[in-house]
Fold this protein.
Amino acid sequence: MKRYLCAFALAVLLAGVCLTGCGKNGSSKGEVVVYNWGEYIDPDTLSMFEEETGIKVIYDEFETNETMYPKVEAGATVYDVICPSDYTIRKMIENDLLQEIDLDHIPNAKNIGAQYYKEAEGFDPGNRYAVPYCWGTVGILYNKTMVDEKVDSWEILWDPKYKDNILMQDSVRDAFMVALKTKGYSMNTLDLDELTEAKNYLLEQKPLVQAYVVDQVRDKMIGNEAAIGVIYSGEAIYTQRENPDLEYVIPKEGTNVWIDSWVIPKNAKNLENAEKFIDFMCRPDIALMNFEYITYSTPNDAARELIEDEEIKNSPIAFPDLSQYDHLETYTYLGQEGDELYNELWKEVKSE
Amino acid sequence: MNKQKRYRKLLGTPYYLWSVFFIIIPLGMVFYYGLTNRNGSLTFENIAAITQPEHIKGLFLALGLSFLSTIICILLSYPLAMILSAMKVSTKSFVVFIFILPMWMNFLLRTMAWQTLLEKNGVINSILSFVGLPALKIINTPSAIVLGMVYNFLPFMVLPLYNCISKIDENVINAARDLGANSFKVFTKIILPLSVPGIISGITMVFIPALTTFVISKLLGGSKILLIGNVIEEEFTQASNWNLGSGLSIVLMIFIIISIIITNIFDKGGESNFL
């Protein structure tokens, strides 16, 4: 009995080794395991990378920073390159999950504009861990045929006129950001009074909200399902392409400016390939391909120069002049207790 | 003989491995996380957390909506199962086929299809407005969730009921008629009691998935209505608090076991004896 079991186990093991081994032997240069947001890259760039370098790309996607983080922390899969947002990068740095990136090995990183590196210092002092990939703002997308008045404030999301025509973000930081900013507070506050006020404000809004959604804001706005939605600037260009009645604004109370950046986790197995991958992504032609495919603003100045359509190149949505806006902020990591507090309050809003 | 036995055992190994890797170990992990805090020390906090107002509310809402859906499923399925069992074999299999057909499609897709159907400018409302009727406003309300539950789980009620009713011996019914029972009496005294096992397995197969769902409430409720399933899901995906998520899952398991015990009390020696 035992012998058979052993034989069976061995067979299974061998089959497993063979399967993974075969994959490895397919390319002599090894592989790079990439973990990125869903629909956040032009798939052609991946095959180009494979062709040019002979490195096999194993590509995995996540939907939110919050789903990505525990997987990386648990180390269930060992990734070589990850693309988290600002506050999550801070959290990963603080919890010692990342390794420093040697920019000498990534010559194309110089294509990233200096102002983005400066912005990134907020979560990565000294720019030691992260190379910016995409950036943008959070704002209001509205349908000109349904909204007549001038839209320049978050307060329109509390206007009873638009009952059942408002789409809110179903993510704790973005939802609280809107409420906190409207009340004139910081989006990174840990002050319980301010947060409680924001929570009550969100509760007040709930009867007016059609639905709390994340990616569906895009499709619902294109399909004229709602008049006003909270959306990431990167989605705005895409939605306007599909439905010209839509307009994007950055509210006057200020909003979140975010940067998603490439990082290399501490336990990465293919450091050299990870550097090559990041370098490839920073190449102007590749960054341009990605920009055109995903329409999220690129921090790659050289790539922006290559954009042929002048209107897009100087688009106030894709490349807003941030100095014109007041009260812009970037999310910071709130610490575990802070995270729990926000989640608790958000749950109270959602369950009401 | 001995050799044969050995082979038999050997053939069983895949199932042992399956149950160890995909049932016992995951369950063990749920209990491990549920009974510890982030630092790994033993605590009952995560279980006790069910008493928090937003958790208890999610639980009762889930219990209520899935109870309602189960009742609706029974009311819809019972007549259908009786009609089916009285049909000719050829028509019968056709109708059963029609009922099973949607199940060939992914559950998620079907629920998303309902979202598109029920939307403000969705298919149903376009038709309604075309014929001059007022719009149907049930998307993002509990009614839409109940609709989604009933639609998705109805076949699981129809099939066991139909199986059970069609197995009832014609002679028993004829004997009752011979002894002077009218149709109503035949139904209440013969068909209904004999179909209890079918009702019970139908209830278990509808009530439990409805109680634990989070997809239906998310898609058709617009994330505005938190059922206990959504609370648990968000603990894992958004709050990354696996301990609390696991603790609440254990509570949910307890409620499922209770519901199975209750249904088994009504089912004496029937086919759905899980425990």
